[in-house]
Write a structure and sequence with these properties.
The chain has helices at about 1-50, 55-105. By secondary structure, it is an all-alpha fold. The longest helix is centred in the first third of the chain and has 50 residues, at about 1-50.
């Protein structure tokens, strides 16, 4: 019966790990979408910079937008690092759960105590 309790606990942990993975996947998809938007904005900005070399006021505005885009890219890279770290943590936790499941599925053999030799009580000389 204790094995059933352990299996139930492990199953619950597996479900939680699955939900955490789904959340991580969703966060990654949002990050990927944000990165695509940043890339598109950068491409458009570069086109506008190429066209605005004659207009000084517009060039200043484009420089400002360029700096904001670079800052957004830096923030996005930091966010991606956090997502990657979280994924590594989920992977390690999943491996632990898999190892626990393997132990439940195929428990190691019970250790038997090594018999201690009994002395006959007679002195040996």
């Amino acid at each position: 019966m204790p094995e059933d309790h352990a299996q139930h606990d492990l199953d619950t942990d597996q479900k939680v790990a699955g939900l955490e993975q789904a959340l991580g996947d969703r966060q990654q998809a949002i990050g990927d979408r944000d990165q695509k938007k940043l890339d598109d904005a950068q491409e458009q900005l570069e086109e506008e910079i190429g066209q605005a070399t004659q207009d000084r006021g517009r060039a200043v505005e484009l420089d400002r937008r360029q700096a904001q885009g670079e800052l957004a890219q830096t923030r996005r890279a930091a966010s991606q690092q956090l997502l990657d770290d979280a994924q590594r943590g989920r992977d390690e936790h999943q491996q632990l759960l898999d190892d626990q499941q393997a132990d439940l599925d195929d428990p190691p053999p019970a250790s038997t105590p090594t018999p201690v030799p009994q002395s006959s009580g007679a002195p040996t000389s």
